[in-house]
Design a protein that fits this description.
Blueprint lengths: L6 E7 L4 E4 L5 E15 L2 E14 H10 L5 E14 L5 E14 L13 H16 L13
Parallel strand pairs: 4-6
Antiparallel strand pairs: 1-3, 1-5, 2-3, 3-4, 5-6
Length: about 150
């Protein structure tokens, strides 16, 4: 019987995702999420940030690479995986990562930039400025009219 190994986490990508392939050609995308936690201590609120490594595989990996970028909000549902190894000196090491099974990206609101002006629009504006410079200012006197 399998034990429960499930995680749901929300946060923001701290850098652009990295896409690699296994020797057999299977795509693997890795990225790191920063997740904020706020709690009250005494009279003030404290902020705690956790950084979590995530890996996604196959089609999900390609989608994460194409849609993800630094700062984008993300929700990941997956499982925990622990890697264990010994270094060259025989010291044991371990690392826990999240293997994504489902990934959702928050909407990506881009700032709207004004549309690029065409050459015709720039030429027309330059002509208007030149024409306006050639005109002499006209001063008119207004007579007071009383009834």
């Amino acid at each position: 019987m399998n034990n429960l190994n499930s995680i749901l986490i929300e946060g923001n990508l701290i850098r652009d995702p990295l896409l690699r392939s296994t020797p057999k050609g299977t795509p693997v995308c890795t990225f790191t999420i920063a997740s904020n936690r706020y709690y009250k201590q005494d009279a003030a609120y404290e902020k705690e940030v956790g950084f979590f490594d995530v890996e996604s595989w196959t089609k999900l990996a390609e989608n994460c690479y194409n849609l993800g970028h630094k700062g984008r909000g993300v929700r990941v549902v997956g499982r925990l995986k622990q890697d264990r190894w010994n270094d060259a000196e025989g010291r044991p090491h371990s690392r826990v990562t999240i293997v994504a099974e489902h990934v959702e990206f928050r909407p990506d609101f881009k700032k709207e930039e004004p549309p690029a002006r065409t050459l015709a629009e720039e030429t027309e504006e330059a002509a208007r400025e030149e024409f306006a410079a050639e005109l002499e200012p006209v001063e008119e006197e207004f007579a007071a009219i009383t009834f």
